[in-house]
């Protein structure tokens, strides 16, 4: 990629040289910083201007950026060597959750080892790592056998997480695995064919779902049927977004959010607060920021020098996109409420760390490029 | 068939690039889809969701009930609810509060205090809540504001009902007034029923019948638009208005009595002896109750409190006066009924009285009456006769008889805080003063002086019992309660007790004796009696000493300051044969009862002869 090389060398300032030494991609960093700053602004409004809440979130963000910095130092090769073990540990932890996990919010998804955390978060990274590890050593596009093994590697953690039940994380883990396969060059007809097979699988899935998940799907289809119960979130969220209009009601002035009509407004439904207070214009800017980050991720993936890096980078970027799409889709009422936070904006710690670790990997892939032989 | 695998690195790169581009495009398409969705919600359906957002701001509003009205017996309105206009602001809709306050200040007068209170309310209310800036706008101010309304978004002129007393000071001591609910009131009321109410009865009937007048609060859910205006009422439980009170008061008599009293301080009670109905309830001086409805200023209040003759003081209810000679008819009845004296028995009046074992101390009479019997003693108000009578009765028997007429006890009128007067007895003196009772004190009590105290209302009630020949009736201001449709919901039923004399004709002796006060040759009120036409009146004058006169000293009205002059009292009933009206008058510093007898005549003429006049 000569053009990129020229860009890097010709316009190197002292600052960018430092960034290169600590393996930070300034473009991606810019996008992430903009997004997290915007996120803090919305959180301030959504969290009733609580200084305590802000403080906690700033601490978490700092930790997350630190994790990103640390992960960025790990070369893709090193990552490649660790991958099977990370995946194995992740699956073992998932099994432990299944047998000995803490129950929180009606679902068994927490594991207590020193601190409470969700092993399923690890799988958001471990699954694409594992798939990339596996497929990068096969001939591409993958053959039937590779696809079967890949499917197994994706489905095992996905189903285990879905059974906890944590539909949102399962979706993200599944998506992460799927995108590795997608970037490996799976043939379109195979892709479409298995897609159709999945559709046929829906009735089976329906039967496997918990009542509250079914209820969520049902209330999505007809939220007005239970306006004070299951549909309340979606209705209030749609009112918040819709009443924001083109220009929004102004920061801290969203009546839906400020008068407590909007539930979970600092976590999963924070986008509704944003859309109410900053309107359509604000939403365009915010989504552009996400698109920018996704684009940069895909750019890094495209310029990666080995298949493992490529597949991993592509998958991580698209998973980030899925995160966004599912969250905004559910908050605006076109997708079921599956409990996916708005990445880097929603209040909460664990997903923040995994996300930033993923971006650390992207930065590592970007910065270690020229030191790797083809 | 074996698939041909692409093994060339550049080929893999190309394949991957294609996929990356596809993924990128997919992202953009899906983001576009999200934006389309947002556009649908935020632009196309904006009005709908903006409406829903405001519908979220549905508020539960208390609907205060309309306070019951108060009428006199002829339907003259004594207390009503009038719309008053208030200036309010909704801060959320006001762009520049300070500029708006300045601008409005040029249109209507807004005091520093108004602005201060407005800022205080702003801190304690939400931005979309309406906050009062000025109360009680004049019609001119309302018009000026209405014209300028478009210049001040968020400004509103709100109409509210507030209490008004069209009769002003004339009825204040009976009707009372309402005022803002105070912290103290909150402890005594059902707060939930007063959501939305700002006023509560403070004195008089307004306080006594507060529960009935107030009514029951209603509520409604209202939808407000983004400007905070009520767009529609979603549901509503209407309030139950308070009952209207129809009083026994006769506004014409009330006014006549008030005017007849002139500039004097005092009280006039006019009562129907048969029903207990209070026809007039006057205490002078009085004050305008409308001052209190919207909060009286400290200056105005202290002027009323400290003013000449203390207008806030309800003399009819709280005023305690020595009854003076008006007590004599009741004592006379006690004397002949207990047979300590015959009703034809003569007593020689030599102008003073001495106790058998204390010749030194002379109890004065105002005149030498010669030989008097009961009728003469009442007619001429002979003190010596009643000294002797009191001496024979003794204080205990006096106390027992007088208490039967209600002296020393509350009458049970439908007003709060009534005073009970003072009917002394041996036992009372020992209890309160820890002293023995002296025989001389019995004599003083015999002419209604000394410790004896009565309220004007007590005098009226006792006179009614006398006029009724023993049927003692509880006085009532309220005649009946009516709901808003005019249906009677409650009627006042006064309690009745009977004073039994051993022989019924003794009532007639006393009635006749009291007639002589007006008709007799020496009657103390003969100047009034001569003018009587169309009916016969029975009465008794009285004079209550404001300060004691030392023995041998002459009382000279000319040299005594007005405030130290004696109080004039007069009790009367008419017509003699079948009494329908009782009047009790106390005129402070009126000097002598005969001076106020014309007031009674004026009232009775108006009441008894009104049919003839028509």
Keywords:
heterodimer; A: 374 residues; mainly alpha; 3-stranded antiparallel sheet; 3 strands; 71% helix; B: 614 residues; alpha+beta; Beta-lactamase; 5-stranded antiparallel sheet; 23 helices; elongated; disordered N terminus
Radius of gyration of chain A: 21 Å
Structural class by SSE content of chain B: alpha+beta
Biggest sheet features of chain A: 3 strands, antiparallel
**Integer-rounded radius of gyration of chain B:** 38 Å
Unreliable segments of chain A (pLDDT under 50, ≥5 consecutive)?
A: none
User: How many beta-strand elements of chain B?
Assistant: 25
Distance from first to last alpha carbon of chain A: 12 Å
As residue ranges, the low-confidence spans of chain B are 1-6, 548-553
Question: How would you sum up the global shape of chain A?
Answer: globular
CATH class call of the largest domain in chain B: Alpha Beta
The overall pLDDT of chain A, averaged over residues, is 85
N-end to C-end Cα span of chain B: 129 Å
- If classified by CATH, what would the architecture of the largest domain in chain B be? 3-Layer(aba) Sandwich
